[in-house]
Amino acid sequence: MSTFMDMVYEKARKSPKRVVFPEGNDDRTIEAAVKATSLGVAKAILIGTPSKINETAAGKGFHLEGIDIIDIGNLPNLDVYIKEFFDLRKGKATMEEAAETMKKDVYYGAMMVRKGLADTFVAGAVNTTANVSRAAIYLIGMKPGIKTLSSFFVMILPDKTFGKDGILFYADGGFVIDPTDEQLADITVTTGATYRELMGEEPNIAMLSFSTKGSSKHERIDKVTRALALAKAKDPSLNIDGELQADAALLPSVAARKAPGSPVAGKANVLIFPDLDSGNIAYKLTERLAKAEALGPIYQGTAKPCSDLSRGCKATDILNCAAINVVRLQGSK
Ligand SMILES: CC(C)(COP(=O)(O)OP(=O)(O)OC[C@H]1O[C@@H](n2cnc3c(N)ncnc32)[C@H](O)[C@@H]1OP(=O)(O)O)[C@@H](O)C(=O)NCCC(=O)NCCS
């Protein structure tokens, strides 16, 4: 396991939070909930069919002590939640659609977070990204001042000279395809806040481009500088600079030539990409060519942390997401 995840588990254990796992009928999810509980990183809640969960646990020799099970066939307060969902969607869903939606595991789990019955949810081992993201957007909602759900990656590089001991945050490599100025500003500010939550330190945020400080002229560069101004206005306490090329952001020698005086160039630990093409390509290249470990994509921007998973995930990935969310909750203001 990486040093980063060691740090996450150590912090999570100090103040575990309530994590609801809506996909409780999934074997990997049951394993993750059992391990989260036995490691002391979370108080786990499983939504599913109690007989199925008990059978799976018995078959694998797992102990379910300390884990709450919510029966998907007999969901508490369902009628109240259906009405609340209907009201929230303001005419965009009929009462029948609200009832159909609220009976679904991931929406019910998100509603539990909304109602303060859980602190975070981890789903997506079974549900599609569309369902997980809609549940997050509709029911948990965004942080004050933020309108955009986005995602980030923690990149852990073998070369410890980059970022914070080889740790860099990349955004957005997984969700917002072609951000507007406002969305790019949201992604920037949100990733800065996420870095603070998880690392407990101040981020140095570079807004990347193919140009450094006006070295080229193009509408795409203007988009980055407009988003930079918006991001600085949204959170003046963050150390952000742009537009910067990746080498100027990361290497002090290049920074000294291309961006002298920049508060970020040469020491960036958060890289903001102008669109999903560049963010997704960059994380995969870093993973393969630099032999980095990539953790994510992890959702950010919601009022409470929550996670989407890949449907090909393993129990360890689910457990890691839960632990990361616990630490983000501890660090959130
Ligand atoms: C989130 C998503 C599932 C919603 O899709 P949809 O329900 O078909 O319809 P829309 O895109 O119109 O969005 C529905 C609602 O979500 C909101 N929304 C969409 N994307 C959002 C985002 N990034 N942050 C916050 N809200 C968002 C819309 O404003 C809309 O709100 P409203 O219904 O209250 O007006 C869709 O936008 C999506 O799939 N996004 C991810 C894009 C993607 O595939 N990324 C790459 C993954 S590798």
Task: Give an overview of the whole structure.
The chain has 333 residues and is of the alpha/beta class. It has 2 domains: 3-141 and 302-331, 3-Layer(aba) Sandwich (Rossmann fold), CATH 3.40.50; 150-295, Isocitrate/Isopropylmalate dehydrogenase-like (Rossmann fold, 3-Layer(aba) Sandwich). The protein has 13 helices and 11 strands. It has helices at 3-14, 27-39, 50-60, 78-88, 95-102, 105-114, 129-140, 181-199, 219-234, 246-250, 252-258, 276-289, 315-331, and strands at 17-21, 42-48, 68-71, 120-123, 150-156, 167-171, 204-208, 239-244, 270-272, 293-300, 306-308. A 6-stranded mixed β-sheet has the order 8-7-9-6-5-10, sandwiched between helices. The radius of gyration is 21 Å and the shape is globular. The chain starts with a helix and ends with a helix. Coenzyme A (COA) binds next to helix 7.
Short synopsis of the structure:
With 333 residues, the protein is an alpha/beta fold. It is 47% helix and 17% strand.
Write the layout of secondary structure elements.
Blueprint lengths: L2 H12 L2 E5 L5 H13 L2 E7 L1 H11 L7 E4 L6 H11 L6 H8 L2 H10 L5 E4 L5 H12 L9 E7 L10 E5 L9 H19 L4 E5 L10 H16 L4 E6 L1 H5 L1 H7 L11 E3 L3 H14 L3 E8 L5 E3 L6 H17 L2
Parallel strand pairs: 1-2, 1-4, 2-3, 4-11, 6-9, 7-8, 7-9
Antiparallel strand pairs: 5-6, 5-10
Helix pairs in contact: 1-13, 2-13, 4-5, 6-7, 8-9, 8-13
The structure holds coenzyme A (COA).
Coenzyme A (COA) binds next to helix 7.
